[in-house]
């Protein structure tokens, strides 16, 4: 099987920014992650073995001078010391254990230093997705010329509608070539429609941003808040996370992902100083319109005009939903859209995978003898991630009504 991940920066920007903040604020933290397949997929025989070989191939990855030079040009907010860390970074296969059970279901556990293992999630998910289509023969259905035209059409519609949007699709892409095709098509569509109302901002994938000379886009993921929630408790996790982010980036990368433990506890932590510091918020779960209403009301309660604040929508979007949200949201805020699977895994006859890797436990230092469990409490019913007992405990602590 050919090596799927061939570039160190074939990864999402938020992994680099979070790693920087982790080293800056929690340099000795240790974490555990686990894999969840929400569709309970039965994988082909030998899949875990092939996946393990792909993960072992990560050990050959080295960040190049060209990649560092690109990031220095485009990612002004990352301090210089971090690139020295990346130059010496080496993956270790021992951080990951993958296996299949007797029924063919896939199990993956990750454990190690947070600043090391943080770079595994996106890469492993991208490998699982591409490897699955190869081993099941679905990859033979991938017509990349047709996919370019299909993607170009999506871009044209979004631009005409005035949408400001980015590719967020690395984790569940059908293949590297699929995402490469998406970024190329979107860039060329934006160029051809120069002067249109909308804008293709860039891609979360740092390597493809470099290849196509577009902006790498991203800030943080839920794991940053969830790990802090495990170490210090969910009540003040957002407060600590926002302070830590401010400590590292000094106001840059100012779009905060608020929904790790639900809107209510975040809102209580989102004081006026944070609301003024952060440029905006990202909606990644729940009803988009309801969440936007909460955000607008919160800003207004603090005497801040929500029309001056960015709101990034990224919850399972497609072209149609983004355009509909744009019509409504443009009069309330500065909307933009991070679109993932709909961009990078939308081939006819191919079902996108519904897979995640989530951080489930953390401890502040390796000298502790035990981990603290954590979880993610989604605004989408039934999409909480983590041990059900931990989810229930966190919901009780936060006074969140248990779902029937």
Automatic annotation (TrEMBL):
Record-annotated Nicotinate/nicotinamide phosphoribosyltransferase domain positions: 165-363
Keywords assigned by UniProt, alphabetized: Glycosyltransferase, Ligase, Phosphoprotein, Pyridine nucleotide biosynthesis, Transferase
EC number from the UniProt entry: 6.3.4.21
One GO biological process term: NAD+ biosynthetic process via the salvage pathway
Any one GO MF annotation of this record: nicotinate phosphoribosyltransferase activity
PTM: Transiently phosphorylated on a His residue during the reaction cycle. Phosphorylation strongly increases the affinity for substrates and increases the rate of nicotinate D-ribonucleotide production. Dephosphorylation regenerates the low-affinity form of the enzyme, leading to product release.
Highest taxon, organism lineage: Bacteria
Pfam families: NAPRTase, NAPRTase_N
Gene Ontology CC: cytosol
Pathway: Cofactor biosynthesis; NAD(+) biosynthesis; nicotinate D-ribonucleotide from nicotinate: step 1/1
Cleavable signal peptide: none
Domain Nicotinate phosphoribosyltransferase N-terminal residue range list: 10-129
Broad EC category: ligase
Keyword Phosphoprotein attributed: yes
Catalytic activity: 5-phospho-alpha-D-ribose 1-diphosphate + nicotinate + ATP + H2O = nicotinate beta-D-ribonucleotide + ADP + phosphate + diphosphate
UniProt function note: Catalyzes the synthesis of beta-nicotinate D-ribonucleotide from nicotinate and 5-phospho-D-ribose 1-phosphate at the expense of ATP.
Family in the record: Belongs to the NAPRTase family.
Name of protein: Nicotinate phosphoribosyltransferase
Species of provenance: Candidatus Caccoplasma merdipullorum
Phylogenetic placement of the source organism: Bacteria, Pseudomonadati, Bacteroidota, Bacteroidia, Bacteroidales
Gene transcribed to yield this protein: pncB
């Amino acid at each position: 099987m050919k090596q799927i991940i061939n570039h160190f920066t074939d990864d999402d920007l938020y992994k680099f920014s979070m790693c920087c903040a982790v080293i800056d604020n929690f340099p000795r933290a240790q974490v555990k992650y686990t894999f969840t397949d929400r569709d309970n997929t039965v994988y082909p025989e030998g899949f875990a073995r092939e996946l393990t070989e792909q993960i072992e191939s990560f050990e050959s990855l080295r960040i190049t001078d060209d990649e560092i030079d690109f990031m220095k040009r485009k990612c002004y907010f990352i301090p210089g010391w971090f690139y020295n860390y990346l130059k010496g970074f080496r993956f270790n296969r021992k951080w990951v254990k993958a296996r299949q059970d007797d029924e063919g279901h896939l199990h993956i556990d990750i454990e190690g230093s947070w600043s090391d293992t943080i770079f595994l999630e996106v890469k492993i998910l991208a490998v699982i997705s591409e490897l699955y289509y190869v081993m099941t023969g679905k990859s033979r259905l991938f017509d990349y010329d047709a996919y370019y035209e299909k993607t170009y059409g999506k871009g044209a519609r979004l631009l005409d509608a005035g949408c400001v949007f980015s590719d967020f699709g690395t984790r569940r892409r059908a293949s590297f070539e699929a995402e490469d095709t998406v970024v190329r098509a979107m860039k060329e569509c934006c160029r051809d429609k120069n002067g249109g109302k909308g804008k293709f901002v860039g891609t979360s994938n740092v390597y493809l941003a470099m290849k196509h000379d577009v902006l790498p886009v991203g800030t943080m993921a839920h794991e940053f808040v969830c790990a802090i929630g495990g170490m210090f408790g969910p009540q003040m996790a957002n407060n600590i996370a926002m302070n830590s982010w401010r400590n590292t980036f000094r106001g840059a990368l100012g779009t905060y992902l608020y929904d790790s433990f639900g809107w209510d506890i975040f809102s209580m932590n989102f004081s006026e100083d944070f609301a003024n510091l952060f440029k905006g918020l990202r909606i990644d779960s729940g009803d988009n319109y309801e969440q936007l209403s909460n955000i607008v009301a919160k800003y207004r309660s603090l005497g801040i005009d929500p029309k001056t604040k960015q709101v990034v929508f990224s919850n399972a979007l497609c072209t149609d939903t983004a355009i509909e949200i744009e019509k409504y949201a443009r009069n309330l805020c500065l909307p933009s859209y991070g679109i993932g699977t709909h961009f990078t895994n939308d081939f006819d006859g191919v079902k996108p995978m519904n897979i995640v890797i989530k951080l489930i436990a953390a401890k502040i230092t390796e000298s502790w003898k035990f981990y603290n469990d954590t979880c993610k409490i989604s605004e989408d019913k039934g999409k909480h991630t983590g041990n059900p007992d931990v989810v229930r405990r966190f919901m009780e602590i936060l006074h969140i009504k248990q779902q029937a």
